[in-house]
Amino acid sequence: MTSDQEVSTSIRLEACAKTFDDGTRALEPIDLEIAGGETVVLLGPSGCGKTTTLRIIAGLEAPDPGGRVLFGSDDVTPLPIESRNVGMVFQSYALFPNMTVRENVAYGLMVRNVPKPERAVRVGEMLAMMHIEELADRRIDQLSGGQRQRVALARAIAVRPRVLLLDEPLTALDASLRERLRIEINDLLRSLGITAVYVTHDQGEAMAIGDRIVVMRKGVVAQIGSPKDIYYRPANAFVADFIGTSNRLTGHLSNGALSFQGGSIPWQRSEAAELTVMFRPQDAEIVAPTEAQIAGRIANVYFLGDRTKIILEAIGQGPIVVETTAQADFVIGSNVGLKINPDRIFEIDGET
Amino acid sequence: MKRSRIFYVNLAFTLLVCAFLIVPIFLSMLAGVTVNFFQGIKSGLTLSWVIEVWSLYADTIFLSLLIAVACLICNLLIGVPAAYVLARKSGRVARMIEETLVLPIAIPGLAIALALIVTYGGIREFRLSWLFILVGHVLYTLPFMIRSVLAVLSSFDFRTLEEGAASLGAGFWKRFRTIIIPNCRAGILAGSLMVVTLSVGEFNLTWMLHTPLTKTLPVGLADSYASMRLEIGSAYTLVFLIMILPLLIALQLYGRPRAAKTTISDPE
Ligand SMILES: Nc1ncnc2c1ncn2[C@@H]1O[C@H](COP(=O)(O)OP(=O)(O)OP(=O)(O)O)[C@@H](O)[C@H]1O
Ligand SMILES: [Mg+2]
After folding, report:
1. On the CB side of A75, how many CA atoms lie within 13 Å of its CA?
2. How far is residue A337's CA from residue A330's CA, in Å, rounded to a whole number?
3. A68-113: per-residue pLDDT in tens?
4. How confident is the model over A57-70, as a mean pLDDT?
5. Residue-by-residue DSSP string for A228-273
6. A55-64 burial: b if 16+ Cβ within 10 Å, else e
7. Atom 13 of ligand 1 has which residue's CA nearest to it?
8. Ligand 1: which residue has its CA nearest to atom 11?
9. Which of A289, A306, B159, B234 has a Cα at 20 to 30 A from A197?
10. C-beta A48 within 6 A of ligand 1
């Protein structure tokens, strides 16, 4: 068990594509490097190939010929999952209904022929760590969703895997529980220092957990970067739209200003005749019409408690969304000015 | 008021039908312990007919049990893995095999027996041994076992459970023994009871396949009806029922599909 001593294993995917037997091309050749101890989140809409990528790393699917999977310096491509020493948490948990919580957590150790006393100690540690000691002798069908999730995590990390793979582990839970477990999982991954790949289609979850995020789309990587990068420097309109709300302005560039319906903004950063820029709703504010270079009309106002969401029309091609914490009265139909924080405007590839 | 009258009429009718069905069986069993059937119960009760049945037909009872147990073993060894393979394969071939599996249920036992005789009857030692009957029974009961296990396999996501076990390092046989089999227990149990019951009571096939030296209980029963005193036939029926009733009751308890599901999750 040399892998026990290893602190953390890096993962490398080389040209891993996947074509299923029925001809479905789930994944275009993908190259991905995950550093030891890093948590990488695979994010993207349904059917974009997140699970397929994860299953290739796990060894549950083989990549198309030519693709390689490396753990550290070991080429694990030909190894089945049971020889890869991975920990996996499934969306449906995949807990064994014929066993108690304790037996579930002990399963991997039992398979590895860990002696009984040592096994009991390790299982005890895991149960304590996940705060499920009092559930040890329950059967799986006597657990709530959140409790199952903890058992699944405990079971996966009990064997001290080289890498931990999680496929939408929180999707089946309700919102508040999801929030709590998300924090717990985050703390757990940090304290274990384990290399982890986390699949989700929830961008909030991805932002909170990932050191880096891999945004995928139709079997292709759309962008890889830190949560901040992805949020403020989306590589294209698809990423911008997928990660939170974004406003886009497309216009003509002349004399150092980008003009569009409703006004213009100074723009020196490129020479193209026509270009698209984006900004986030919280990076703009509503001002008096005389104080801004952009003018529009309030189409709708949503009071959200801590902030207010305002929809503006008559600017650019589509509605513009602004979020503000200001307590002013916003009157629907009134003409207002829009001021955008110049440091938070980015040019993007306008194609969707 | 009116509703309750309908209820009592219904109850009376149901009881009447039950009596119509049960009374003959009861009378037959009674006849098996009556000294003289034609004089009725007045003539006294005796176990001598049962003892006589035992001395005449004990070997058929043992053969029936032997075949039933052997048949069960064959079913467990063939049927359970076959069901697993069928459940795993999603292709059209697998579905076709699944459909063909019902055929032995639809084809009369006599036809199966005839097919066996035509095909293997020439192998003399085989034809004369009880194994010939066993083959017929396995052929006849296998679909029941496979269907029963298949039903349980389709009631839970065994593929993901297996992937879970594999991710924890379990190879195929380990997974099969520790995950698949225990989670299919209810289906295997229900299937086993069905197989044993069907095998013990099977007549059509067996009657065609048997030789004077390889008579099973139901064949012996027919034989005794044809050639013995009525009391002996009745005593034989009694023995048969005592053997098969517990099995039938157990089958009722475990055999229902809904019951099968709850037994998976029930603590032992
Ligand atoms: N076993 C399979 N056979 C054929 N096609 C498959 C198979 N598994 C997945 N696919 C297809 O491959 C594509 C990618 O699937 P994948 O499960 O990786 O998506 P995903 O990103 O995990 O989506 P979701 O968020 O819905 O889980 C989909 O179009 C899917 O239909
Ligand atoms: Mg998925």
Report:
1. 7
2. 12
3. 999 988 999 999 999 999 999 998 899 999 999 999 999 999 999 9
4. 93
5. HHHHHS-SBHHHHHHSS--EEEEEEEETTEEEETTEEEE--S---S
6. bbbbbbbebb
7. A26
8. A26
9. B159
10. yes
Contact A90 B164 (CB under 8 A): yes
CB B109 within 8 A of CB B199: no
Residue B256 amino acid letter: R
Count of beta carbons in the 10 Å neighbourhood of residue A293: 15
Per-residue pLDDT tens digits for A280-314 = 888 888 888 888 788 888 888 888 888 888 898 88
A18 forms bridges with which residues in the sheet?
A: A27
Ligand 1 centroid – CA A249 distance (Å): 34
Look up residue A93 and give its amino acid.
Y
pLDDT (average), residues A318-333 = 83
The predicted-structure confidence for A199-210, as pLDDT tens digits, reads as follows 998 888 899 899
CB B174 within 8 A of CB B124: no
How, if at all, do strands A195-200 and A163-167 pair? parallel
* Residue among A4, A56, A105, A107 with most chain B CBs within 10 A, to mutate: A107
Q: How far is CA B15 from the centre of its chain?
A: 28
The three state secondary structure string of A91-158 is: CCCCCCCCCEHHHHHHHHHHHCCCCHHHHHHHHHHHHHHCCCHHHCCCEHHHCCHHHHHHHHHHHHHH
Nearest to B167 among A81, A97, A112 (CB): A81
| CA pseudo-torsion sign B247, B253, B258, B263 | negative
Q: Which chain B residue has its CA at the smallest distance from A59's CA?
A: B167
Cα B193–Cα B194–Cα B197 angle in degrees, nearest 5: 85
Nearest CB among B166, B179, B267 relative to A82 is that of B166
Output the tens digit of pLDDT for each of chain B's 268 residues. 566 888 899 999 999 999 998 888 888 888 888 877 777 777 777 887 888 888 888 888 888 889 999 999 999 999 999 999 999 887 788 888 888 877 767 778 788 888 888 888 888 888 888 888 899 899 889 989 998 999 899 898 999 999 999 999 999 999 999 999 999 988 998 899 889 888 988 888 888 888 888 888 888 888 877 877 778 888 888 888 888 888 888 877 775 544 334 444 433 3
Per-residue pLDDT at A248 exceeds 60: yes
Query: What is the DSSP pairing of strand A247-254 with strand A86-89?
Result: unpaired
Provide the ipTM.
Answer: 0.81
Helix, strand or coil, per DSSP, at residue A184? helix
* Closest alpha carbon to A69 in A29, A107, A99, A104: A29
Domain boundaries, chain B: 7-46, 57-254
Residue A260 in this model has a pLDDT that exceeds 90: no
Centre of ligand 2 to C-alpha B143, Å, is 36
CB neighbours of residue B38 within 10 Å: 9
β-sheet bridge partners, residue A214: A42, A224
Nearest to B167 among A58, A95, A139 (CB): A58
